[in-house]
Input
Amino acid sequence: MSRRSGVSPASWLGLGTHADEYRYGTDERFGVVAESRLPERWVKTTCGYCSVGCGMLIGVRGGAAVAVRGDPDHPVNCGRLCPKGLSEHQTIAAPGRLHQPLMRTERTQPLTPTTWDRALDRVAGGFRALMAEHGPDAVAILSTGQLVTEEFYALGKLARLGLGIRHYDGNTTLCMSSAVAGYKSSFGSDGPPGAYADLEQADCILLVGANIADNHPLLAPRVLANQAATVIVVDPRVTKTAMIADVHLAIRPRTDVVLINALMKVIVDEGLVDTDYVSAHTEGYPELVAHLATVDVAAAAAECGIAPELLHRAALAFGRAERGFVAWTMGVNHSVQGTATVTLLNDLCLITGNIGRPGAAPFSITGQCNAMGTREAGGSSSLPGYRRFDSADDRAELAGLWGVPVARIPTERGRAYPDIIDGILDGTIRGLWIIATNPPVSFPNRRRLEAALAQLDLLVVQDGFETPTTKQGDVVLPAAIWGEKTGTYTNSERRVSLVRRAVNPPGQARSDLDIFLTVAERLGMRDELFPGWHGPEDAFAEWARVSAGRLCDYSGITYQRIDEAGGVQWPCPAGAEQPEGGTARLYGDGRFGTPSGRAQLRCVSPQPLSEPPSEDFPLLLNTGRTVEHWHTRTKTGRVGILEEMAPAAWVEVSPPDARRLRLATGDRVRISSARGAVDDLAVRVTATVRQGEVFVPFHYDERCVNLLTVDEFDPISREPNYKQCAVRLARCE
Amino acid sequence: MTVVDQPVSFLPTRSTPAESPRPSRGPSTGPTTGPSTRPGIGTNGPALLPLDAGEQYRFSFEMGACIGCHSCEVACAEQNANPVGVNWRRVGEVEGGSFPEAQRFNLSMACNHCVEPTCLSGCPTNAYVKLENGIVAHHAEDCIGCQYCIWNCPYEVPAFNPQRRVVTKCDLCQPRLATGDKPACVDACPTHAITVEKVNIAQWRADHRQADAPGLPPSDITLSTTRIIVPESMPASTRSVVDERLEPADPHWPLIAVTLLTQLSLGTLVATVALHALAARPPGAAGAGAAAGAGALALAVSVLHLGRPAVAWKALRNLRRSWLSREVALFSAFSLATFAYAAASIVGGWSPRQLLGLGLVAIALGAAGTYASGRLYLVPARPVWNSGRTVVAFFATALVTGPLVAVPSAGPGTAGIRLLFGLATIGSLFQLGTIQHLVASIAARREREFALTARLLFGRFRLLFVVRVGATLATTAACMLASLSAARAGAGFLALVVLALAAAGELIGRYLFFVTVTPMTAARRFSGGTR
Output
């Protein structure tokens, strides 16, 4: 919240103390608070940062968002919020919002304001012209996990049916695609099986590469409250989450496959396998046992860099648990073996029968507020409703629902995110529409990404804020952000929650849904694609109908039911007898989405690092996040209190490495890899990292760690391997 | 006062006793530790009970339960509409052990609502009050923005608000407590690590070990009431993580000017009155005039240090307790007396004996003012300042500079010259003594504040320190020689040169005094440095 600055002589003399600006008032619901934070009304919504999906209230006064509160009645967070959520109203009026469309004719010219008409003419006309001249491969879309599900559903239809886009993916490939691919591989479908309540009901919680205390703070209290559970954290760093663990397995980077195989080996050897469950509901157990026979637990512990007793203790705790819960995030997904590692975690739960019961599940904690929504409805990596591109039945069903010839439904997903970048560089793709994501900061090997963006004939960027990406755009479309539009988000536990428009977008900014509908109008396809649609509820109604009968069945969900229940967990079929809040857990009946109905046990062998430390680059770089910031800081970098707490990137260096390099906390270093360098990075000497490893947070455009990271991707999910590459440090003079 | 609190639970809190209690992060066991099971996210913390006689409210903080989310800080800023940089609650970090057993703990600290609050006792305007319920409250309207409370608080709790130009601080959300709600930070904490509870003051006086934790100053100074629940597993090596990158403290240029000018004024008056006594008649108006001028200038400059110069007079409100109030009062009186002495020296009409009496009165006031000025810096929260050496150094500054200003008034003959350079020699020798004492105590003391001051004084500011010592040595030698030779010819020029040397030494010395001090503080966090 900005304030008048006191520079007048009267203020300098200190005649007054601005007491009127610091008065307190009383809110009916929340008691005494600064008068400047007193709203006229509270608008119920859901947080727009991470996928925990905390219920919130936005306080509105005079058409402005002046406050936020956690919704005390929401089952996810019960009124609590993290620091980003607690200051989220400040994002709406933050500096750097886009107020009007911008355009340029040449890349060398500056972006200048234009009208929506001209901008959208250029978007629709430009993309059509490129596809007419160079074929349907010439245009691609990079979307996000930040829009509402209604918008994702509309964008999918617009992209696949309207524009006929083949290559459509999102930044969700940078975070959750390995979980998606792993679930599909093991269970035949995407869809996290568990629920947050499991964290309180489990008697063993295994968190793998998941620093929830920093990244999903409102899940940590559930772990802390469950004092009876053995909490095991697998992480190469002593993270805030590792510090609340009973057992911390500080494994060497990317030895997770080695570790999980060894855990399963101990469980098999100790006779802790749930043989009833395995024989009734899985396939591939004999192969898995044969595969594990080659595992030497002691050697595995040595390779992981942990004490064998700790490994045994963890394996026994999980194997003996009546309710074992596995949760993971980017430590697992951000790997060339991400998908395979996810299937191993699924194996671990399957052989111990830990799925489909309270307190027991393999659970991917999603990243963005609505990454789940785009997975369900977006039509990028799968067709809406988790339908498969390669299934004729699925395509026919969808074509029927949409009333279009089945030939118009694509038979394959097209290029994934990194392959779209490759396609730009090899000249196949000439037009790109980027929606609410910021690749220069978030994509690995930044220089190569920037070269790709510079090479495009037409780059359209749609965002709420000026970002390093909008600066590159030929057309920039100003979008409404959280708090300015209505729709639904799905959180990690499949809970569909409402987000509401509390204030109007600034200037000429429009909701993404409005933009998509208008583009369809330009294409002359609005009535065909979006018949009778006026707003998000129309989109939701159609999407709910399209999802009917699928795993992610929304057909019983309405906005009203969401409000009454505090969010509804799918599947929620219309007419089904189930709690108001929907279905807490998947696979309670032991039936999976595979052709046989059985879950598939997969065998995985570890792969070595492609870029281990070398003489030139002797340290292994790990990247991640800090609690104050969200993604590439386009929002949180503009919230004063968050930015003040973490204003710049730093590098964490172990005490032995610091001694060797003669570095102390606060010193400035250059960090370089084979791909680039970052200068003037503050050193933090800390024993929370292992000798030979360093850690840098990735949020920062200035001092961008993705100048260093390796552009290497999981062969199945196409997710980048952000977490391991070789670097060196040198003091900056 | 009663606070209604009905626990609302959406899920039952697990109360099954753990088979093996959490080994690493469980709270320490003892009569006053927290519950064995933590309340779930959907529950409120324990209800706040009404106070009995001899009790007050306080915060408690369970280090093992804090996940370092910083929600409390944001909630506090929102609750009080505080601008960026004005933090009434701060989460610091301490770290200990070695990989992979290393542990980092967060220390979320707001005001400790101390039993013996030094912010309150030092405040010259009585802007602070300890309420009946124990809350240390601060009234912005009474504050002049001198920020002396920030120096006095070992935890650096009071926060200067540059927009309001006054200090502001946590009041434990007193208005919320009064209406049955909990403070914003407590309500915001997702893990119930921060709570409000009551404490029996007499019992706490007798045993306040739980006010101490790594990363915090010793609680004895102010009898901090915040109860810290330290995890049993905390490594012995646990300490603040940011100490290594300590930045120099604020030089406080107005204070450098004020202290130097008042001391110069006193020294000049002492020299002038000494000449008066020596010659049994007033030595002309030059010395007295210079003393009066320097004193007046000091008073004028002093208000530049304040956030609210317009209400500087309020600084006289706490003569009973605050050395700052006393300093202001004594220097004001000193300034008036010096003016009277100077005026009487010029106008005449007073007998030499009466005038000498007036001069001695002025000296007494100036000496008392300088003593008060020195005492002002003797705060436990700044251990390097907290020594009689500081007072001695202030008087030494007076004596090494003032007599050199008075040289033009030395009169005919060598006695005056000898006297003045002699006085300056004594001052200079004393100053060398204080420097020696400072170096010796920094070498002898093991506390972080001394170690960090040493790092600044002998590291970053080494060159200035060497110049400071060199200037003082040269001043001593020059004054000694001039005093012994007592040459009349060229004495004025020599005095000017030596004065420049001495003034440079004292200016650098005073600058170093301010910038190399290490305040006690509650542990801070590493924040990645500057953009």
